[in-house]
Amino acid sequence: MENLRKKNPGLTLYTIYDAEFAPYGRIRTDIDAQELISEARKIPMPEEGSAYVPSVEAFEALPVAGQIKDRLFGGLATQVGYCYGHSSLLNALEWHIGSELNVAATPFVLFLARQEDLADNKLCSSMIKAFYVPEGAVVEIYEGTLHFCPCETSEKGFGCVVGLLEGTNIPHEQPVSDKVLFKKNKWLIAHNENTALIEKGIVPGISGENLQLKY
Predict the structure, then answer these.
(1) CB within 8 A of 148, min separation 6: which ones?
(2) Where are the domains of the chain?
(3) Residue 103 burial (C-beta neighbours within 10 Å; 0-12, 13-18, 19+)
(4) Edge-to-edge strand order for the sheet containing 78-85?
């Protein structure tokens, strides 16, 4: 943390243990994720970029999957997958109906905002806060919290197990009228400078600096 703060003097860096995290999520001490983390560490790190898999059979076969389903999602059908790779920029923000579980297989930093900060699906990056998530932490990201790909804290990359309502982040079978509904239960806006996402049809909605975490 101290090294990250020194490398990022222009970025206020909080932790999930700070009071500032309360509007965005909470730490879930009632979910024992040690077996899940051990299984997640078998996943190879991409050499570049990031990889997201919505559902992993090996994760969902563990007893903790039942805890996630019952304690986080109230018994609703749940998927447990992962997001692994390399990223250091804000780049975009997404949100879902229902909470998201993040289990830190490595340390990482999340850029977060709230859905009520949006105005016509637009947001200035000055409204976004950065939170350090230590390795081993089990965190619920509340419904309505804007988030995206974690940021790595070292060249080794980041590893995050992701629990969501079943069907989230799955492609649509039919076209939808909502321009920011990128996939099922995944609303997404890109930073105005992120031409790669914009060229894929993602609506540009984030102005201001494209925040970057240096390490």
Answers:
(1) 90, 91, 92, 93, 94, 111
(2) 2-175
(3) buried
(4) 25-27, 138-141, 100-104, 158-165, 78-85, 50-53
Q: Which of 107, 102, 114 lies closest to 161 in space, CA to CA?
A: 102
Burial (CB count <10 Å: 0-12, 13-18, 19+), residue 9: exposed
Whose structure tokens read 């804000």?
A: 90
| Residue corresponding to tokens 């998530």 | 133
Instruction: Take residue 85 and report the two structure tokens written for it.
Output: 């790779």
Cβ(147)–Cβ(130) under 8 Å?
no
pLDDT in tens, 156-195: 999 999 999 999 999 999 999 999 999 999 999 999 999 9
2-175: CATH architecture: Sandwich (2.60)
Q: pTM to 2 decimals?
A: 0.97
- Cα Rg of the chain, angstroms: 16
Asked if 69 and 123 count as a contact pair (C-beta separation under 8 A), the reply is no
